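DM from R.C. (forwarded with permission)

"hey, sorry to bug you on a friday — could you get me a structure for this? deadline for the figure draft is monday and I only need the backbone to look sensible"
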Amino acid sequence: MSPLTKIFVILLVIFSLLLTAGTVVFVNTQTVTASSLKSAQSAEAAQAAAASRAQSDLSSERAANQVAVNTLNAQIETMKNNQNRAAADLADRDAKLAAAAADKAMVTANISSLTEALKASEDSRSKQMEQLAALRQTSDQIQTQNAALNTQINDLTNRLDVTERDRRFLAEQLAEAKQQGEKMGAALKDANIDINAVAAGTRAGAPAVTGVVRSTRQIANLPYATISVGSSDNVAKGMEFKVVDRDAGKFLGTLTVDSVEPNESTGHLSGPHVQDIKPGTEVRTQ
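My reply, with the result:
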């Protein structure tokens, strides 16, 4: 075999191998291509279904979006209305705030006026309290004076009672003295004695003279007293005075005048209660 033949054979073998390989590759390629085509068709169908579903979903999404847009528009409209109402409420609130500010200014002015009125009232109340304190003090003084006056009234009432007892006693003595005087006058007339020619006596016939004891003292162990009446009151030496305690209605003793001055007299004391005689005790001739 010639080399060319060998080469040809070799080439033929090589081409045969290549053809076989190509055929195998083609067959394999056709199988793969058919499988790929079928897969592609399946994928296309799936994509079409997915596209359909996507279209449906898109429509649904568009509808939902439209609903959402409508809802959002409604919300926006509601928000605009709410904003308008809020603006109106804000304007109303501003008006109310302005009115409240005006009211506050009036209240502040009223508070100022009331504060001044309260201060004036407090000042007036303070003055009234001072006047009340003064009135209470005056009332206390008046009550004290009333108590003192009541005491004085009671004392004067007691003295009046004593004086009334003395008056009745003296009235009885005067009536008795008148009777005795009438009897003595009748007796003097029976004895042919002129009563007008006889001077006033110093005892029972002494004139009515009343005074008080000014002082007492002891002279030669005898009690003496000075009284507030003298010759200007028709007091004469030897005249006898009864010393009485008007408050108690008690006879204390007798003062016999030893010396006479124009406005006072001095005499010695005798009687059952000489020791009780003191300045201020009453003396009388009748």
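R.C.: lifesaver. The mean pLDDT is 82.
me: no worries. Strands lie at 210-219, 222-227, 240-245, 250-260, 265-270, 282-284.
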